[in-house]
TrEMBL record:
Reactions it catalyzes: Release of an N-terminal amino acid, Xaa-|-Yaa- from a peptide, amide or arylamide. Xaa is preferably Ala, but may be most amino acids including Pro (slow action). When a terminal hydrophobic residue is followed by a prolyl residue, the two may be released as an intact Xaa-Pro dipeptide
Entries under Pfam families matching the protein: ERAP1_C, Peptidase_M1, Peptidase_M1_N
Protein name per UniProt: Aminopeptidase
Species the sequence originates in: Acidimicrobium ferrooxidans (strain DSM 10331 / JCM 15462 / NBRC 103882 / ICP)
Residues that coordinate or bind Zn(2+): H306, H310, E329
Domain (Aminopeptidase N-like N-terminal): residue spans on this chain: 18-199
One GO MF term: alanyl aminopeptidase activity
SUPFAM superfamilies, per database record: Leukotriene A4 hydrolase N-terminal domain, Metalloproteases ('zincins'), catalytic domain
Length: 852
């Protein structure tokens, strides 16, 4: 890694560093601009006539430095387009303590970054405006002048002067609220602990806070817009559990005096770990505990635990620079699942996490993958790191390391790491050192092969008389001889657990191209218990034995066997017949995650099928998922496990959509009519599936009901479900209405994902692509920049008989219209598109012989 001191036009000179900020903002969400004053106490490390600060789209009207009793007026001069402002003095200032006073003004932003504007309508239809913040990774400089780098930690004392009818929230508790003029109140907040600028938060608007619940003496509240009080209890319960769990796991007390969980109507991400004032999308925090779908409860529990884990991993100990963001996000993801698994063991969250790992591995097998950690120079480089590779792959290798070292040894290493770097900054090697001290092994030698190169291995398994031969090669979804390899690496230290279903289990470390391993009699599972981050390709003899013993495998072992077979089919490394042979076993499967792989595979086969072949895909879907739904039934049962609830919905969706089962379609229509009448309706877990089935075969009256329900929802999840169901209608006129809605009344946090779903709709793809081409510049101007790449991800699904010919046209358009952020994600989307087009080329027109 390049040292921090290397010249970088995006970074500030280390000639000075901050210690404390006194920040005062005068903000009225109904008025622009806002004004502010910041006093930064810091230290000048060598005589200088120039101080640098970060400031973007801010007007600095006054700059004064005070040192040794002398006040010096400074002249602001933007250094470059990189958000650096130079403050020039007439003569050098001496080394030592100093204070920097800056007056400034700025406009509330509309891009959900920095200090930005959010709105909501109350029950009477009145629109209310909110001023709120999102500072990660480089948004603080868009709100006030500062030293906006993660290792420039300081304390912050915030004062907000706002209209008297509004409420204000920040990281630490309010110490004083006074009226300073008619209609204006001043809110002072206690100084924070030492932390990075990106963790500062300020929220101003009409909000309601719940009565606090407590963990020890730490109050926990949910803050929300009026009228949503009934949706707060579950998040409070989760947060209480999480604080107790993390304090025990880390053996360090929660580092702030309060926890406010704030639901923000407009929010580009899922949530943000501001110390003591965590902000969320409403769907990630507010939920009806007694009437929610299982997936909605899991979503809220996951996100709340993830953000609270950050209070230690990220806030207390922070990466030194953005190349180490995985230290924050991967660990928060790992701890999120660990904490939720302890909160509700019956949810089996580590099994469900395999879906996230699978999605990350799908990206990691493409040439445009990246190492988990790489050099970051520009702010947009940091933005590219907020992806599945940082979160899910990062968490997966931590889980793998934990299982390899032993969970208690791993925890002890984590405690060492946090104690050593509390209130400071750290790098990846600091974590390896702490884990090495706890385990007595060279952890870095193994883990560096996973962090500093992209990709993951394909482990080939061949039988030997007393065990198996293991060989590793890089796994590539684009595996032709002339395909680029890109960032995919070449040799990993792979912890492998081997299990004989007859007798015996052992662990080995495959740190060379191949090795032999003794294990008990066949059948033998490689990646026993399913925690390894690699694909497995079994010799035909071994694969057949495992297929026959499918029911004896553990859940994650079955998951990996099916997932690896489908990935090998997609790459061309194995025939479709291998996957289809295993897919037949899904008739007796009850785990929703494993069924989800079958659902995704059948969905792709349906998309590539020629019209004459579609009946065979439908027949396969019916034969596999019909018995599953017969087992669960279409109605919720008191004996349902959490997995049953989700598995029923998957089977229902496959049968109602791909199989076009008339009984399921009729059932969906009946439950939808009950919903429309206000009497009855589908169970919470079936709502999304019912809406999807109705929409795919629905008419304008169905569309009108869903649109009205989106505009007048019962809760945030209800709003999202009905909005996204609108994208499932097949009529072009309705498709046009949905696209127009995305460019008008739909919140900019949701509109890109709505367009994504319309592009994915096989019946509307040509229309959606034409709309994208015609309105692309408007989309770039309207939507948050970090959502454009996500909007385009469904382009990889434009592979149907009437749309796949547009691939060249689509690629050319995107080459000629570069996006300002997310270029790597877009490159991955286009490579995934190539994978899907190759799958079509191999099997479209041949599916009858494969499936009949």
């Amino acid at each position: 890694m390049a040292p921090v001191t290397e010249h970088n036009p995006y970074r500030l000179s280390r000639v000075w560093t901050p210690r404390h900020y006194d920040l005062t903002l005068q903000v009225d969400p109904d008025v622009d601009p806002y004004t502010g004053h910041v006093r930064i106490d810091g230290d000048v490390h060598e005589p200088t006539a120039v101080l640098e600060v970060h400031a973007v789209d801010l007007a600095i009207s006054s700059a004064i430095a005070t040192f040794a009793g002398t006040r010096v007026t400074l002249t602001p001069r933007p250094r470059s387009e990189h958000g650096v402002v130079e403050l020039h003095a007439d003569a050098p200032m001496p080394a030592g303590p100093f204070a920097l006073d800056l007056d400034f003004s700025g406009a509330l932003r509309r891009d959900l970054d920095g200090l930005y504007l959010s709105t909501y309508r109350d029950a009477d239809g009145t629109t209310h405006r909110i001023a709120t913040t999102q500072f990660e990774s480089t948004g603080a400089r868009k709100a006030f002048p500062c030293f906006d780098e993660p290792d420039a930690k300081a304390t912050f004392a915030v004062t907000l002067e706002i209209p008297s009818h509004l409420e204000a929230y920040s990281n630490y508790p309010v110490t004083e609220r006074t009226t300073i003029a008619p209609g204006t109140d001043r809110w002072r907040f206690a100084p924070t602990m030492t932390m990075s600028t990106y963790l500062l938060a300020m929220v101003i608007g009409r909000f309601v806070a719940t009565e606090p619940v407590f963990h020890r003496d730490v109050p926990i509240r949910v803050v929300h817009v009026p009228g949503k009080e009934q949706l707060t209890a579950f998040a409070l319960e989760v947060a209480q559990h999480a604080l107790a769990f993390f304090e025990d796991y880390f053996a360090i007390a929660y580092p702030a005096p309060k926890v406010d969980l704030l639901a923000i109507p407009d929010f580009a991400a899922g949530a943000m770990e501001n110390l003591g004032a965590i902000t969320f999308r409403e769907t990630a925090l507010l939920v009806d505990r007694d009437n929610a779908a299982q997936v909605d409860l899991e979503r809220v529990a996951d996100v709340v635990c993830h953000e609270l884990a950050h209070m230690w991993f990220g806030d207390l100990v922070t990466m030194r620079w953005w190349n180490g963001i995985w230290l924050n996000e991967a660990f928060a993801t790992f701890m999120e699942v660990t904490a939720v698994d302890a909160f509700r063991p019956e949810w089996r969250r580590w099994e469900a996490f395999a879906i996230g790992r699978l999605a990350a591995m799908g990206i990691d097998a493409l040439p445009s993958t990246r190492p988990i950690e790489y050099t970051v120079r520009a702010p947009e480089d940091a933005e590219d790191m907020f992806d599945l590779l940082t979160y899910e792959k990062g968490a997966s290798i931590l889980r793998m390391a934990s299982e390899h070292l032993g969970p208690e040894v791993f925890r002890d290493g984590v405690r060492r790491y946090l104690r050593a770097h509390a209130y400071g900054n750290a790098e990846t090697q600091d974590l390896w050192a702490a884990l090495g001290e706890a385990s007595g092994t060279d952890v870095g030698a193994m883990m560096d092969t996973w962090v500093f190169q992209g990709g993951h291995p394909l482990v080939s398994v061949d039988p030997l008389p007393d065990g198996v031969r293991l060989a590793q090669t890089p796994f590539r979804l684009l595996a032709a001889d002339d395909d680029p390899i890109g960032a995919i690496g070449s040799l990993w230290h792979v912890p492998i657990a081997l299990r004989s279903l007859v007798d015996g289990e052992r662990r080995v470390l495959l740190d060379q191209p191949e090795m032999s391993a003794e294990v008990g009699p066949a059948p033998v599972v490689v990646n026993a218990h399913g925690e390894g981050v690699f694909r497995a390709r079994y010799a035909q003899q071994l694969l057949a034995q495992l297929a026959e013993s499918f029911g004896q495998l553990e859940t994650l072992e079955r998951f990996n066997l099916i997932a690896d077979a489908w990935a090998l089919t997609q790459s061309g490394a194995a025939p479709l017949e291998d996957f289809l042979g295993l897919a037949e076993r899904l008739r007796d499967e009850r785990d929703p995650n494993i069924l989800g792989i079958g659902q995704a595979a059948l969905g792709l086969l349906e998309r590539i099928a020629e019209p004459s072949e579609i009946t065979h895909v439908r027949a396969l879907a019916a034969s596999v998922f019909g018995p599953v739904l017969d087992y669960f039934g279409t109605e919720a049962r008191p004996t349902d496990t959490p997995q049953d609830r989700t598995a029923r919905a998957i089977a229902y969706d496959v049968l109602g959509d791909i199989a076009e089962d008339p009984d399921v379609r009729q059932h969906a229509r009946e439950r939808f009519r009950e919903e429309m009448s206000g009497i009855g309706g589908p169970s919470a877990d079936l709502v999304a599936a019912v809406l999807g089935v109705v929409a795919r075969f629905g008419d304008e009256s169905d569309f009108a009901f869903m649109l009205d329900r989106y505009r007048h929802p019962r809760n945030p999840q209800d709003e999202q479900r009905h909005l996204f169901a609108l994208a499932e209608f097949r009529q072009p006129a309705l498709g046009r209405r949905v696209l127009d809605l995305a460019m008008s009344e739909v919140r900019t946090q949701d509109a890109p994902f709505l367009i994504n779903r319309v592009i994915a709709n096989p019946a509307l793809q040509n229309q959606a692509i034409d709309f994208l081409f015609a309105r692309f510049d408007e989309m770039l101007a309207r939507f948050p920049l970090n959502t454009i790449d996500r909007m385009l991800q469904s382009i990889a699904l434009v592979i149907g008989p009437t749309t796949y010919q547009r691939a060249g046209e689509i690629v050319r358009f995107l080459e000629e219209h570069p996006i300002p952020a997310g270029k790597r994600v877009l490159a991955q989307t286009l490579e995934r598109y190539q994978v899907n087009l190759r799958l079509r080329a191999r099997y479209a027109g041949r599916l009858t012989s494969q499936l009949a």
